[in-house]
Amino acid sequence: MESTRDVAAAAKIGKILGERLLLKGIPAVSVFLKREHKYHGKVKAVIDSLRDAGVKLL
Fold first, then answer.
1. Strands (E), the chain
2. How far, in whole angstroms, is CA 42 from its chain's centroid?
3. Using CA atoms, how far apart are residues 14 and 58, in angstroms rounded to an integer?
4. 45 with 39: CB under 8 angstroms?
5. Contact, 20 vs 54, CB < 8 A?
6. pLDDT tens across 5-51, in order?
7. Which top CATH class is 7-57?
């Protein structure tokens, strides 16, 4: 990764996080977004990557 501040980097971090959660035996996580954290951009990339990795979102 050349930059850690773009959407592609956020997606890669979400994928790695999802894989590590599944290795530790954590199949689901709860996601709570406050009003100022909208579901778009980097936040959306991380959450979608977690879902793609096989982690259930509650």
1. 28-29, 56-57
2. 9
3. 16
4. no
5. no
6. 899 999 999 999 999 999 999 999 999 888 877 889 999 999 999 99
7. alpha beta
